[in-house]
Amino acid sequence: MVLKSKFRIFNDIGPVSEDIIYAAGIYSWNGFLESEGVSGLTQRLYESTSEQIKEWSNALEMKDAKFFATNLQSSMHWMLLKEFQEHVCYLDIETTGLYRDFDKVTVVGIYDGHSFQNLVRGRGLSKKAIQKSLSGCKLLVTYYGSCFDLPFLQSEFYGIDLNIPHFDLCFGGRKVGLTGGLKKIERRLGISRDSSISSVDGFEAVTLWYSFQKGNEKSLKKLLDYCMADTINLSKMAPLVFEKLNQLETSIRLDHLN
DNA sequence: TCACCGTCATTTTGGGCGTT
DNA sequence: AACGCCCAAAATGACGGTGA
Predict the structure, then answer these.
(1) Which end of chain A has the least Cβ crowding within 10 Å, N or C?
(2) Residue ranges covered by each domain of chain A
(3) Which pLDDT score is estimated for A258?
(4) Does pTM surpass 0.90?
(5) Distance from residue A70 (CA) to nucleotide C5 (C1'), in Å?
(6) The CATH number of domain A85-244, selected from 1.10.357.10, 3.30.420.10, 2.30.110.10, 3.40.50.2300
(7) Which of these, A70, A26, A67, A68, lies nearest to A46 by C-alpha position?
(8) A183 CB closer than 7 A to any strand C atom
């Protein structure tokens, strides 16, 4: 479990102190608690860190999603993927454009690992409906959602509670060299999508919506298929990015020991 | 006790990215 | 037609140790 080997997440522990802890042969929270102290750290710092470890361990035990949403910096939320794996929701939205001041949310797609659900504008999409679909969610997974999807939802559904840990595959991917957008990364990872929607992109999602507004029901079907492909592919991509991040973390730690 | 210095941690600043 | 996030580098702040 990655998180339990991290010390930089605690107050007053930075990269240097963390290296001191590793150099003392301590690689986990439990190891830290079992030691009587760490040479190189003041007793005062050792004790305040021990207290924080107990608090965080308890939050993990309780699967307290809100605790991590507020206390864990977002670039480390990926570490919760395995821990919360039974409560992960993959989310992707479609809109009429990129600008939340002018544009509207048209579809919200949510996949919980078992079934896909879509909420369509004018056909049941509402703040309450989204909130209900996410009620058991302890970890959100999106692509670029921290900059696009979530702020868009906040803007249209004012006051919606999205205070949930959030693994953003865009930033996680960047760290392991996966850049260039969702579709490009999917290809690089060998994740496929159905040929019927393989040519659809975000811009076409906009025109499909307007076509549906003019009465073309087939356009909606295609839009929903596209949204579903995007959303479900997030669930295929997440464990792959997770593993790469995991490997990166351990190699960095070994580096620092030398 | 006090001024000073070195070491870390934390905060601030600026540039680039990717979303429909 | 925007915007929030991330990283890196620079600035600021807190703390402990030293020497007189």
Answers:
(1) C
(2) 3-62, 85-244
(3) 67
(4) yes
(5) 16
(6) 3.30.420.10
(7) A26
(8) no
